[in-house]
Amino acid sequence: MKRFYKTVSVGKDKRDYVILLDGKQIKTPAGNILRLSSKKTADLIVNEWNDIAENENINPQDMNYTNLASTTIDKIIPNRNEIVENICSYAMNDLICYRNNETKTLQKMQSDSWDSELEWARKELNMPLVTTDSIMPVNQDIQVYKSANKICDKCCDYQLTALADLVGNLGSFVLSWGVLSDKLDFDSAWEKSHIDESYQNQVWGVDDERLKSQKIIKQNLYKTIKFYKTI
């Protein structure tokens, strides 16, 4: 579908901000009004729609901020408890707890990259994570779950959307919250979450198609972080 509207603007509906195309409110895929709690977030979405040139096709996959807001309204708000449970399950099975038991080089790379984050999680987040070199899930202390749950509770629905997106793509609650709490920059977190892949690339060479796909995911996650910061 090509751009069909002339103007994009921010409106108010009670205490919320809404996005207007030629004066009409945008709706989510589920038919809900796209509401935002933050003017800065609304401005991101306005700019996203304004960036589409006249007669240019609208590609929903490229509308990251709109998609994040729609996901919040259609999926996060009505299923918040399930989303929090899923995020906490990542904390209980965090990527940085699982170490290679066959290759010393990779094991050292993991230790050098992840041990400082584990220490931060233990001291600052009250998450006493333990590591394993087994492929079997490790039984973490229930305090890990409680601490992750407490952090989720502090997030509004829009922030929780961003946290869920990061955690799902990085495979690590610790790395994701490190980014969102400004303890860790995203490029470092991305590298830390791809230690195994980096090692495989050194040994077997780079898969160009995989690299291209990862680049797209990474660019989208930059926007996820910006979305979180505007709430």
Chain-wise SSE layout:
Blueprint: E1 8-13, E2 16-21, E3 24-25, E4 35-36, H1 39-50, H2 64-76, H3 80-92, H4 104-124, H5 142-154, H6 157-170, H7 173-180, H8 186-193, H9 195-204, H10 208-230
Antiparallel strand pairs: 1-2, 2-3, 2-4
Q: Which key terms come to mind for this protein?
A:
58% helix, 10 helices, 2 domains, alpha+beta, ATP12-like
Compact overview of the structure:
With 231 residues, the chain is α+β, with helices and mostly antiparallel strands. It has 10 helices and 4 strands. The protein has 2 domains: 8-60, ATP12-like; 78-230, ATP12-like fold (Orthogonal Bundle), CATH 1.10.3580.
What does this 3D model show about the protein?
This protein has 231 residues and is an alpha+beta fold. It has 2 domains: 8-60, ATP12-like, CATH 3.30.2180.10; 78-230, Orthogonal Bundle (ATP12-like fold). It is 58% helix and 7% strand. It has helices at 39-50, 64-76, 80-92, 104-124, 142-154, 157-170, 173-180, 186-193, 195-204, 208-230, and strands at residues 8-13, 16-21, 24-25, 35-36. Strands 1, 2, 3 and 4 form a 4-stranded antiparallel beta sheet that branches. α6 crosses α7 and α6 (157-170) packs antiparallel against α10. The mean pLDDT is 95.
